[in-house]
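Assemble and predict.
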Amino acid sequence: MSPRTIAAAQIALLVAVLGVGVALALRVNGYYVFVLANVALLALVGMGMNVLIGLTGQISFGHVGFYALGAYTVAVLGKMGVSFWISWPLGAVIATLFGGVLALPALRVKGPYLAMVTIAFGFIIEHGIVEARGLTGGQNGIMGIASPALGSIRGERAVAIIALISAGVACIGYMLIARGTWGAALRAVRGSEIAAESIGLNPLVIKTAAFAISAFTAGAAGGLFAPLSGFVTPNTFGFSQSILFVLVVMIGGAGSAAGPLVGAVIVGLLPELLSSLEDFRLLFFGGLLLLVLWVAPGGLVGLWQAAIDRLRAILITAKPPATLAAPDIIEPLQQRARAGLSVDGLSIRFGGVHAVSDLSFEAAPGQVTSLIGPNGAGKTTALNMLSGFYRPSSGGFTLGDLHLGGAPAMRVARSGLARTYQTSQLFGELSVIDNVALALSRGKLGTLFGRARINAKPVRMRAAALLAFSVYRGDPLARAEDLPHVDRRFVEIARALALDPDALLLDEPAAGLSSEDKQQLGRLLRKIADAGIAIVVVEHDMALVMGVSDKIVVLDQGRRLAVGTPTEIQANASVRQAYLGDGSATPSVAARKPTEGAPEMLGVNALVVGYGAEPILHEVDIQVRRGEVVALLGANGAGKSTLMRTLCGLHRPVTSGGVTLDGQDVTSMGAEKMVALGMAVSPEGRQVFPELSVLDNIRLGAFLHPEGREARVEDMLTRFPRLRERLHQRAGLLSGGEQQMLAVARALMSRPRILLLDEPSLGLAPKVVADLFAALDKLREEDMTVLVVDQMAALALSLADRAYVLERGRIIASGDALSIGRDPALTQAYLGA
Amino acid sequence: MLLVSALISGIGLGSMYGLMALGFYVTYAVSSTVNFAQGSSMMLGAVLTFALTRNLGLPMPLAILIALALCALYGLVVEFIAVRPFANRGSDSWLMATVALGIVLDNAVMFTFGKEPRNLSSPLAQSSLEIGGVSLGVYPLQVLIPVIGVALAAGLFYLSRRTRWGTAMLAIAQNRSAARLMGIPITKAVAFAYALSTLFAGIAGVLIAPLFNVHSEMGTLFGLKAFAVAILGGITSAWGVMIAGFIFGIAEALVTSTLGSGYTQIITFALVILALAWRPNGLFGRAEVKKV
Amino acid sequence: MPKAFPSFTRRAMLAGASALAITFSAGAVSAAEPIKIGLVTALSGQSALAGEALSRGMTIAIDEINAKGGLLGGRMIELVRRDDEGNPAKGVTAARELIFREKVAVLFGGLDTPVSMAMVPLVNSEKVPFMGPWAAGTGITKNDGNPNFAFRVSAVDEIVDIGMLDYAQKTFKSAKPGMILVNNAWGESNEMGLKAALDAKGLKAVGVEKFEANDVDLTPQLTRLRAAGADSLFMVGNVGPSAQVVKSMDRMGWKVPIVSHWGPAGGRFTELAGPNGKDVHFVQTYSFFGKLSPVGERVVAALKAKYPSIKGLDDITPAVGVANAYDGMHLAALAIAAAGSTDGDAVRQGFYKIGKYDGLIKTYDKPFSPKVHDALQASDYVWAQFIDNRIVPVTN
């Protein structure tokens, strides 16, 4: 079935349900009419709430306020003799305006803060009504509200029919929004507000619209409630009613058109079915609610959908993905004159730290400029400034003649500077092609119910052409969050290109790609550059960088270390040192112990690990024997971090293969358990507890072994005298080197049988590194079993008995430390030369 | 005089709000979830104390201890049946589930305890404090409540820094995965936080019962205001929520005594909205770093 | 097709089967078919106790009637209760259910005036007699229905308010009264009534203060009243909040006479309010203390037999709820008997035909007429105060 026939079938079903409802409203007795109308009103509110909760992921516990505004507008004006047909829409409009106004403070806040703002709003309206006695009748409310007539049908029957039709219209409206450009934009903002900004969407406007829409339906429903019940009083509009509104969406299932309908039926009928329980009604209501939430945490429609999907998976074998209609007709990227990016003195400080200082370079149109440097050099920070997410402390940048330094992300994007992200930030709920088509709109979304901006034929064709250009070969209608890692990378590039940018910023596009994919990526970058776009790429894969770049800018500790062509950079001595270290500051390689016969402490057997479909580690085998120091070397992006996270139990589950710790299988064990078995970790980036004192950090290391703790603390302070001076300071205030010592000390406190050191030298000054490694060398002398990962190969090797070299998720070399140090494979892995 | 009495009653109420808000703080810090029906936990503390003293005839201190222990136990129940099943699945439905559990508890108490409001008398709430024969217009308990409130906040502060489990909880709040690498069992810690949170609410209930009436719905509005206080203070700061409690309580009393009670909730809740518009992470909360 | 909807919901719902069975077990009308009497009141939440008192009063009356062979030639009376949670919207839904599905002959309302007010247009248009055993809002019986189906055996706010002022002037010589009222419809209705009563005497309240039902500390409000120079207070609120007023005054060391609506009678006021609770004088329609009439003896005995939790007279709380509901039920039964059928309009006229009825509160003699829908009048109110746990009529 095509989407169009499915939509037609859904609407037909809806009309049929409505028809039955209206027929019932005309025939059954006054009680059922009333219940039916109440269900319809709940559905009406639910449809709007679904835009808010289901599409944008915001929550509100104050929508009863809008409901009350609609109801009181109809009641007050009705008493003045104004026709329902005027006061009803007016009430909805007033509610909408309030919704827009409330959105201003509400959308500055998130999560529980948002919940509170909306709760407060509900209370203010409720009590405001009480105090506005002259208008609202205060606590006694307004009685005797006349109901509208539909021809000869009067009273609650007329209101019920209007309510049913309104709920139906709202349902269709929801479907139109959900399937249209605005729906895509709302879901995009939910998926990634950051990425939404970087394709030129304005999250504030979009979320405000969602708030206003939900306020509109709540106001409209309230306007029907008044004539339905014939009265309004403030305590009809209490906090618990707001909770029921949220419940309608959550029980039904957020984000589906049928969800609020199902939810309204349950929330509306359940209390009625339980009414004969008299005083036990609420008890049972609460209990049944818990039960429904347990059974269907994603809502009943979600449960149904999951069942259908499972059935379908059993009955229908996978069909080949749809392919795109010949996109060759369309030129995906227009040939036009484009502006270059010029960066001048860009600097930013975080606290006292100069993350980037005085960075200047030119990225010419049609050229690939690479930004490289060791981890922590400030590359991504620079990119974040260039894309408008960070405000530079000084300096700026221009795109052609346009000064963009300090401009917000949305404006930077609309001005023609597109970007991708280190961890790709696709809009997960949208299809692949919608991701691209939405970006083509450049933030201009068109009418609320329209879908032309993402669904018109030329738009689809162009999006398809961009996907094809960006070597995406999969199903364009697949949900982005279901894509394998490699496809996400390419789709994200296609989405960035959809802005038709002058310059494109790419943050580690090759991370996690296979070598074939990397080659394809290299070719793609060239093609994009050939269209005249200036490319700035942050990348660790040196083979790719050296192969594709016209110019390389090397960053080290926030400063520009070198700039030049790939050949110049490879020959640059200071670059070599920044990457590999020189080993001169460390103890000489000496006094290796024979550990041949020692029993295995840590074993890794044919380990395969991946986040999506594409594995990051391919059949990795590693062995660490008792009393041995083993180094794991490899460039950034080789898979070292993933391997370490897997070894310490933070990444689970593994795809295949196994890990053993002292002979015990720990493949499916979590970190807490592995620590109990004698493993200790000094994680990448230190990860000290910043608000705790140095002493508390050290003590926490002994969490599982508190006996004799203080003696060991003393031992650590002897080992790292610098920590003694800082003992009562907050760990967050320590320098990088001190934090690293702290992380090691903390790890040692658990009396480990094996210590995992993840990038201990990262971002540290050479002198500090020397001190640190002297301390680590002492550990080696004490026969501690250590697995150390470090980018600074020379440093790690100076410490190690043996070493493994990891490249692109595979072990490409292993052996004793001295021979690995001389192995050309090592330099190849690091500098691609 | 108007101001003085407003200040005294505001501080007393404010410390109650702050105490319950501390309960929101401890669970939010380690799990990013809260018991939305915290008012029911407060009611439980008061109702159990009443039942144990009046129906079983236990001496007050013993009754309070048992009641608080049962409150903590109820916290474990909340976590186990209304939070964990949803948090584990990444669902936000814990919000609704805690509300549902609160409804169940309120009604279960109504049927067992009775529908009648009762009074838990306390020797500390019999006659007003006097200085030189002049009544100060406050019961000793009202002076005690802020003292206990601040003492508990200080105790929480002290324990969290001086005990193994305390620092472990702080560690979880600051860096979850690093805490796991220390061998800290997160699941247990979250359950413990819920027990502690409910315990705080229970203490608030026991303290306020003699000034108030004991019945199944006594906590509803209280819980909501305490949530407002937790948010106002910035739910990530223990001292912040305590101070926000005082601010909220004093604001309530001041508005009531100057403008009249009809405007109390309108103005206090409007202040909450304005405060959050001004500082989106609460008055004392730390802004989350924008990660790209 | 009255059956269509139930079967539809039956399919649609996953709720308890037992609930369904009870809900939809409607059969054909026969001679043995019971006469259903509806009661819509708060059965949960803050006012649950009031709902319980109404249920008890009605149940005792129904038991008596059924023991005598029921009505209309042997038809038993059956009480059908619904919880309105104090919310008018829920109350009206429940009233509709009782009228349309349970086909109740007479509908009893509950404690909250707004709920009853919201139900009045419905009973008038559906022609089902309504009996108010509690809510005192004036407009409930004085509505614009023609004919008017709303009757009441309870106090009426505007009459109570006049009585409160008279009593305060006479007993306490009050000249500068202040008002402390619960912030709900009941409080607001009395605010209007008291103001009207004061206006009629050329007086003015020195201050009007409101409190929420859940307020803990009322000193800010009371301090304002004291500063305004109030020499006596009119208090309107349920037992819990009323106790908070007394406790807060006690704390402030402020002693002025309090003349109250009947809120304090709704529970263990002296336990809640402390020793000063006895200084509150409040209006009652009935008190079980003092010398009881034979009817009173009978009702107390029946209550003790039926409800084991009632051990003494002070367990019959709120007494007015029990008494009003008991008399209201008997009067409704007399109306049905006079009508000779359960037809709504016939029962309405049946109320007018009631002659003499020896009730709990008093002996009613032609209590209702097309002009008078309130069975109790100002002369039936008694002023009372708490002595220990007993509500004792004030003697002066």
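The longest strand of chain A covers residues 353-363.
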